[in-house]
What we know:
Layout: H1 11-21, E1 29-35, E2 42-47, E3 52-58, H2 63-79, E4 84-90, H3 97-105, E5 110-113, H4 115-123, H5 134-144, H6 156-189, E6 196-200, E7 203-207, H7 216-224, H8 228-245, H9 252-264, H10 274-305, H11 321-331, H12 340-347, E8 351-354, E9 362-366, H13 372-387, H14 392-403, H15 408-429, H16 454-473
Parallel strand pairs: 1-4, 4-5
Antiparallel strand pairs: 1-2, 2-3, 6-7, 8-9
Helix pairs in contact: 4-5, 6-10, 6-11, 8-9, 10-11, 11-13, 12-15, 13-15, 14-15
Amino acid sequence: xxxxxxxxxxxxxxxxxxxxxxxxxxxxxxxxxxxxxxxxxxxxxxxxxxxxxxxxxxxxxxxxxxxxxxxxxxxxxxxxxxxxxxxxxxxxxxxxxxxxxxxxxxxxxxxxxxxxxxxxxxxxxxxxxxxxxxxxxxxxxxxxxxxxxxxxxxxxxxxxxxxxxxxxxxxxxxxxxxxxxxxxxxxxxxxxxxxxxxxxxxxxxxxxxxxxxxxxxxxxxxxxxxxxxxxxxxxxxxxxxxxxxxxxxxxxxxxxxxxxxxxxxxxxxxxxxxxxxxxxxxxxxxxxxxxxxxxxxxxxxxxxxxxxxxxxxxxxxxxxxxxxxxxxxxxxxxxxxxxxxxxxxxxxxxxxxxxxxxxxxxxxxxxxxxxxxxxxxxxxxxxxxxxxxxxxxxxxxxxxxxxxxxxxxxxxxxxxxxxxxxxxxxxxxxxxxxxxxxxxxxxxxxxxxxxxxxxxxxxxxxxxxxxxxxxxxx
Length: 474
């Protein structure tokens, strides 16, 4: 007989967990659940059987509060002669991060529990516990059942990249809100500015004036000539003159459409629109500042990305600096993963599988037992690859899914998961995008043209040379 190779029903994660507990009496295993909060997290300390050693207590997120928390853990460990200390904390926004970093710097290993997992545990029977604090009990149950994530908080350049990409995402969301408010104001001030409405042959249609609503010409007119009567006063000659003076590059066709929209518009006096016009200027100021902040953050993101292996992802068509940076920041160092499935689970985009009675497995909705911010990144990347036109490898995959009856969002998530597998392979093997089973034209894209700053291009080239040399050496 060959040597028996033990396996765990939870895979490598379960095997590592069982190895921590083998040969140890479970009453010598401390369980420390933490319910994260902005100012005062709450915790309790019990053994593996649920016997409480320290009743639930609050502690402050500062050096004094964290030191007191550390002392409570160490005192309980002495009392029960603990051989293992299993600490778990629910991921609540960013509030858990300082606690995790402090504990890890003091030698503890911390498991991060997803809020979705805690919710499931909270709904189950918790008869083993002696406390009424269901949140802490649910987190403790998740620790005992090894339901936490294994990934660590990012550090170093990955931490900076995560902070920068999150900040950019926040500013982009604010800008989207501003743009919606500006559109609403222009609907009041000049309804036809966003496009003239007409009915031809019984069919309604809207004729757009500008190729893009947020183009330079549109923003200039909203700033200085937001009312139709102002444009009519300028006339064709005045608009041509403005175009030359301010380099708006308005075509004659655009000027013609703009004047027609002004002629048929419902004219409202400046007095009636006094507040709307004032508010519009304020919102345009806010939009300008938002664009400036986003530009600064994108410059910093590019500067950080080119120092990481994530620069390899730019060799994929349809993947730009921001997508590559968000993915790299979300995963952290690729060496902490043994297979792509761990990254998929971190995003919570893995399908829940149901199978009974020997029937074929049924793949249902995604688990969502992962980081919601990272899940959004994967969804957005999947959408870009599935709907874009520059990466036929992923586009063909998404088209096959839709042809087999998958809904658009399902196809986008599946495409995002496929991207994770391909990206994991590139980062692990330190190679550029070149699908081995692709029989069409070469798909590998030049990396440097996707990088705006010339100095960052030099750093990216140096990073690529190092990575590709390491790959050759292996």
